[in-house]
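pasting for the record
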Amino acid sequence: MAELFKDWTDTPGGITINKLEAQLAINNAPKEESSLEILLDEVKQLRIQVNELLKPKNDMSKGIFILPNEILRIILSYLNQMDTIHLALTHRSFDKVCKEKLFKSLYVDEVPILINIPKKLYSPFYMKYTIIHSDRFFELLSSFHYKPELIKSILFVNDEFVSYKTLSYIIKDATNCSIRFQHITAADTKIWIIAHQKTTRSDYFMFNYGSADVNPREIPEGARLVSAHQFLDRVVNEMALSKMKRLKSITLIDPPSFVVDEPIVVDELYLTGTTDTLLRDILKWFALSKIRRLQVWCDEQTFPDTMCSLAPELQSLRALELNFESWDDWQKFTEKLKRDSNVL
């Protein structure tokens, strides 16, 4: 009988406990994890989450990702520098074509450019050029990211911070690059430009009357035409002006009387002085309904009346400058404008 009660023990209150069963219960109880084990488990879960996040989310078989570079280049022509950088960061598939855009035309300035008016970000200048500070530009020349083969033109604000030796270094690798300056003061720079400069088609076409070998019909489409009396006379005689379908801007200074076979279509018209010809006889040869920006400086006594009579035809006008002498003239003119005109 003593063996039978070997594993039983009396406890206060008369309750007996089986030691063997108690030990088994202790051994089977769940153990608390150590802090190290908990930390390792959390790291494992984080690793799983990170791997999941790193998986590509973009479907490369649809949308903008399947557009050829030719189409992307057209899209980039409507983006400014910051937009292009953002697109390049969107996905590495855009890296090459965005670099082409950013390196193509550089504008190098001495001071940081502050843009206070947001709409200027989409002006032609900011759409064309990648703006870079001179210090960053020189750092770029010696960096891994420099792509001289992509550079087509560099416009420096002046030649005070760049030497002609640096210019020679640039074109050594950037063989297709055209270098220009907004202001040149150093004689060495002028000599270098004459000796090395590669020419590109200008946004302006300047005509010298003595250049008899220049054919007005060969003026490139989209060029800005700055005209003097003699040039206009020759262009009109050859009936070339009305054939320039995509002129953006025409400036006429004291023009002679002329006749064209059809109205001249142009976005911007700047007219100064009509000494030899009545203003009406000049403006009647332009498609006034297509003009978006108009500037007229005229001393005719009938100038206000002439402009008032032509006001209804100015249907696309966005900006206007007239040398009216009184508020009454302005009031009469604006009353004649179309209601949907948006003159600035």
